[in-house]
């Protein structure tokens, strides 16, 4: 830092900063990053990080003799000021984490101690808290056993005794709900469960992890999804109502797209990859339908629908959420039996005319009734143009589980995409705004000129 | 607040063109702040006490300046609480246990209140169905049916007199119900004192 070259006033400011900010500690020398003022040179730390691969090859040649004597320095283990400074000087690596953490790591490594498992950490309050929680868990487990017994007894009971079949069913339902609640409550206070879930290691076969995942989804992703679905009018336009219960992630290739994002026409030429995370136990048989809701209809002076894709009889479960539509169609090519195929209408690239407003492509995941497969050969006869999703859902008694959408509009690749999709003639069509005739009293007349 | 570059410099600013506000300037720089020390203080015949003289040697720092400097380098908000992963999990565990404890205690308190309420209710019900001789009558014959506790049943005033008395809300002192003003007991009798009564 060239202090002398600075203008006096500038120097004052850096003085101010030095007064205000904390003076440098051993981890962060005084002249390092945070004290620079109005400088375009990169921060010291940034330089260090960008240079980290470099010293490996420079180490053998350029390191002077006295530096080699320092031996190997581990950024995870350096503990005192001197070794930290040496690490930064020689290897150009910042020590990782706090000094306290590094000291603990180093000392445990020296003593070859085994790491204490989390539950056995010797903190009194923590252990007392664990005792309370374990006691509560025991209570919950006995309550679960009791509830199961009660439920079993109720199931065996004569409906006449329980006050009719309907009353009995209602009671069974509420008892099952209570049982599920208890099962969640038994595990919800376990820190290990929380940790595993946060690490993404939760087993989705277990109700507690499904519950946690569902809560997390509902806290943020579902809200965003619902906002997009309503803002872009998917809900009244495609289906009258929708209550999403599965988390759908849409991706083209490796890149994920948020609901409602614009997708480049070249990218959406191939089918997307769906990740349909269900939070209910058991397998489900679903159909995936992709509908374009903004196909311009010139005769009508309006818009109509067009179906881009239908696939049926796809199995999903909480542990097996992935639906790669590309792979699905590739597998279908190998299957000889036409009834066993799953793709009814193969993917057709979404397209938009030049000058026309953007197209909304809604992706729906529909649950098939009672897990029964649909006949793909009949579905294959569905006309793409003017496809009405409402009647499709009604006809096959499907239950919408969730939806997502992406948008497409005219871009530089669109002409090629349309040509390859067989809509070469459409690519030349350009939509323009209709000229609005001015009202008579606003019309410019001879008199006005 | 910390990021503002317009905070005043609190270093001695001899060589700068930057002028600090008068209140923050060092007392030695501001002639008005320096006390007029007599030049004769160096005289061997000075009457000034030694201690008092010695005090003047070092630069005196205005306590206001010290105070301002302290508050400028100590932000109002304390630093945020950062925990490591396991520390946070331990914290969370303790928090959950504490919440569970509170919940259980609240539940027990509510049950206790409920028990007390039910006991009072049962007592009132017992009074309602009691006739003059302390015998229980069937509920259909008792008064106090419906919202008004003063309604009489088919047996009239004979049944549930104490109940009706207990339910009088007139003369409630402040927010204390009349039931608490006097224990609801079986005397004095409605007929007044029996002067004829003798022990055989």
From TrEMBL, chain A:
UniProt-listed InterPro entries = PEBP-like_sf, PEBP_euk
Keyword Cell membrane present in the record's keywords: the answer is: no
Q: The organism sits in which domain of life?
A: Eukaryota
Does the keyword Mitochondrion belong to this entry? yes
Gene Ontology cellular-component terms for this entry are:
mitochondrion
Where is this gene product found? Mitochondrion
Which keywords appear in this protein's UniProt record, sorted alphabetically?
Answer: Mitochondrion
Q: Which family does the entry's similarity section mention?
A: Belongs to the phosphatidylethanolamine-binding protein family. Mitochondrion-specific ribosomal protein mL38 subfamily.
The record describes the protein's role as:
Component of the mitochondrial ribosome (mitoribosome), a dedicated translation machinery responsible for the synthesis of mitochondrial genome-encoded proteins, including at least some of the essential transmembrane subunits of the mitochondrial respiratory chain. The mitoribosomes are attached to the mitochondrial inner membrane and translation products are cotranslationally integrated into the membrane.
- Listed name of the protein: Large ribosomal subunit protein mL38
Automatic annotation (TrEMBL), chain B:
Q: Name one GO biological process term.
A: mitochondrial translation
Bias (Low complexity) ranges:
27-50
Alphabetized GO MF terms = structural constituent of ribosome
Q: List the Gene3D superfamilies hit by this protein, alphabetically.
A: 6.10.250.3440
| GO cellular component terms, A-Z | mitochondrion
Give the residue ranges for region: Disordered.
24-65, 136-156
Protein name as catalogued: Uncharacterized protein
Species name = Sporormia fimetaria CBS 119925
